Structures are given as structure tokens and as C-alpha cells.
Amino acid sequence: MKNHSHAPHQKALSINLDEDKYGSIAEIGAGQETARWFFRAGGAAGTIAKTISAYDMKFSDAIYGKSPRYVSRDRISAMLDHEFALLLERLDKHRSDTRCFFSFANTVAARSFTHKTDGHGWLGVRFEARPHEPPSSIVLHVNLHGKNNIQDQETLGILGINLIYAALYLNQDLDAFLLSLMDQLFPEAVEIDLIDFSGPAFSQVDNRLMALKLVQHGMSNAALFSADGNIIQIADALWKKSVLVERSRFRPPTRLTLDLLDCAQKQFTHETNISSDELLVLSEMTLCDLKSDRQNGIDTDDFLYRANILCALGKHVLISNYGEFFRLAQYLFNYTKNPVAIAMGLPSLRDLFNEKYYANLPGGILESFGRLFKHDLRLYVCPELEEDTGKLLGINELQVEPHLRHLYAHLLENNFVRDLSAVNSDYLKIHSDKILEMIRHNTPGWEEAVPEQVASMIKEHGYFNYAE
């Protein structure tokens, strides 16, 4: 198909009229909204082998096996396993040599008016890119922001059609694939914060890059992947966890970058009396931090250099579109009630008091700080060396505008801002921009500024335009 439609009715009809596509649909939690589009379009008998809605938990368990949670990644995987296996078991012998099978599934928790929480759900499709080829899969997680359940149901139906259509016809053009998921939908109504591609059709796909593209295309404000490169659903990762975040460009991660985070983690766990198992540590990069020096867009190779190094160092990586720290804090507190900490250098704290960033807020800087420190949040701030004198400057030496001094004094007095004095003072001379230039020109001495593992990776793979 060369001319791809944006309308769900036309997409459903196109699939129905394609004699080489045949599959099943299983939906739990919001009606048979995706299946409904196929039947409304007409010709569904040539496409749909079966639709099912196993709402009762005992029925669902009997079909897909028991699960600790019914709206979860485990459940969507079990649904896809079961439904696709049934297609092969019952129909494989009887299909033509050109027909490809697919199974679509979703499991959704509707909006709760009792707890005043939005709905969310998991959607997935397993499909054959070629007849009799091992199947490929796409799984995604969505947050639903409709004003009522009817709106969420409409959203799910359209998104389901978009996902099936994209899987069948756009699986070799993933930028077009991602954009097509939002056809006839709006970010205000639905957010896709996780997408995972697997199988032979996606053997060359790096899911970390897909996480970046979700944020870059405005389909989500943030995406998270673990040190092993697996995409993580943020609500699951933050559930009942305290969180420590370090925001940086990580270009490259230096000894100062890592020591700052390590010292903040030790101080945070000591002050809150939490164990390492109760803490999620995140290395965060914003879209602004990922923009290339030489172009307006994002250099994806450069992003993967940073991602590869951070993963090798055992770091979880958060990609976000939250330029302001108060927006990042609000986002994190949506998913945890436990303490949150942000590790930063003194220049970042100084920048936090720049009122130009809050010009669009009715309450200006006071509103931003009110949102930032509304819950149990603290800032751990690394000192800096004064460029001219070499004098060590900490939070008590920071100078802010005269009319903001009482505000800063309030933050200090109430321990919202805490000194991170344990950082190795020798590392304070390291500036990542200078190290990056040294790497590009292979200026002697840059290796001492980064961990040995980082230096080895840069040399071995030629990261950051390393010149031998």
C-alpha cells in the first residue's frame, strides 16, 4: 500500500480487504473498541478469525494463566502468546502460502472516579511480516487522559486500529510507524510512554532510540530504559521507590559526573534511612541536552554513544522533555509518594534562580519553587571552584539577586538545599565541554578525566568523533 490513510475507518477497511492478512483480537477492560472498527468498516469476515473479551478474572485466568496484576506487561505478553499460538494451531494448515497471521490484544484499567486517577493500559500486536516466518511483536503502554470513560474507549479503539495497521504496513519505516500511531488522536487524550519492538522484523531496531523518538515526537514527556537496554514502564519502576536524579549531558560522563551522583546517593540513603533496593537512581537527559552542536535536530548516533556508556556503567536512563526542574519533580511525584532528590552542581542551582525561565508562570519564580518543593524533595548541590581565584564555593557562598536572598535563605534554613561536600575536590577542575574537545582532537590527558571503562569505550568505538 503506497497511499496510507489516516482515518481509522479507512485503515480498518484496507485491512479487511487485504486477503493476505488474517488474525484475532482480544480486549480486556474497555469494551471491544478495536474489533468494533473492523465490523463497522465491513468485510471483517475476511480478516477476523475471532474476537474475545474475557472480563471476569476467573475466565481470564483460565485462558491466559494467573497474573499478579491484570493490567501489566506480563498479562499482555500472555495474551499475545496464547492468541497467536491458537491461530497457528487451528489455522496454519489451512491458510494460503501468501497469508500472514496477526493477533492484537489489550488490557486496560479504566479511569477511576473514586481515586481520581486516569486510566492506563497495555496494547500489543504479534504478526508475521512474511507468511510462516517467526512472528514479531510490538508492545506499548499508554496513559489515558480523557475526561470520561467514553472518550478513553474511543481513544483505545483508534489507537488499536493504528497499531495493527502500522504493524502490518509500516514495520520497515519506524518514523512513519510512530507518527501513524497518533493519527486522529491528540497528546492531551493519550500518552505513549513505552514501546518495545522484538522479533525478526525488528532485528536492527534499538528500543532505546525508539524511547527517544517517543519524547522527540511529543507522544510522551518522558521515557525510561534500564542498564540492560530494556524499556521500562515508569509507573512500575517508581512504585513505592525513592528517586535520585542527576541531570547532565553525559557527553561524556566524567569522574566528576559519577562522583557527584555516588556522593548524593550515599548522603540521600543515610539521611532517609532507605536501602539501595528502595531507591531508583536515574541519569536524566533532556531533549535540550541531546541537541547537536551543529544542527537543530538530535544526532541519534551521539545519543546512542551516551546511552551505551551509561548502560555499560550500570545506569538507568531517563529521557525527558522537562526543561524546568519543577516539571520534572511534579512528574516523578505522580508515581511515588516517597522522597525524591536531585543531584546538581552549583552552576545549576545558580541557574535555578534565573527568573527568565518562569516568565510564563503566573506566579513566577515563587510558583516554580512552590511546585518544586511541594512534596518531599531536596537538592544535593556539588560545590565549584571559582574560575579566577580557585576558591571553593558551596551553597552558603552562592550569591543570588538581592530580592531573592530571603527566598534562598528559606530554602537553606529548611534543608531543601543541601551541601554535597564529600565530592572529590580534585574532580571539580573537570569540565565536560573541555574534555569533549580534547577527545575530538586526541589532546593528551583527557583519559584521566573519565573512568577507565569510559575511555576504553570511546577509543574502541570512536565515540564523540574521537581522533586517533
Could you state the oligomeric state of the chains shown? single chain
Within the largest sheet, what's the order of strands?
8-7-11-10-9-12-13-16
Number of strands: 16
Main beta sheet: 8 strands, mixed
Within CATH, the superfamily of the largest domain carries the name: HUPs
Strand proportion: 15-25%
Query: Average pLDDT across residues?
Result: 93
Give the class from helix and strand content and strand pairing: alpha/beta
CATH fold name of the largest domain? Rossmann fold
Helix content: 25-40%
**Unreliable stretches:** none
Radius of gyration: 25 Å
CATH architecture assignment name of the largest domain: 3-Layer(aba) Sandwich
The CATH class designation of the largest domain is Alpha Beta
H/I helix tally: 17
Outline type? elongated
Topology readout:
Blueprint: H1 8-16, E1 21-28, H2 33-41, E2 48-52, H3 57-64, H4 73-91, E3 100-109, E4 119-127, E5 136-144, H5 149-169, H6 174-181, E6 190-198, H7 207-216, E7 222-225, E8 231-232, H8 234-238, E9 242-247, H9 255-272, E10 279-286, H10 287-290, H11 300-312, E11 316-320, H12 325-333, E12 340-345, H13 346-352, H14 364-372, E13 377-382, E14 384-385, E15 392-393, H15 405-413, E16 417-419, H16 432-441, H17 452-461
Parallel strand pairs: 1-2, 1-3, 9-10, 9-12, 10-11, 12-13, 13-16
Antiparallel strand pairs: 3-4, 4-5, 5-6, 7-8, 7-11, 14-15
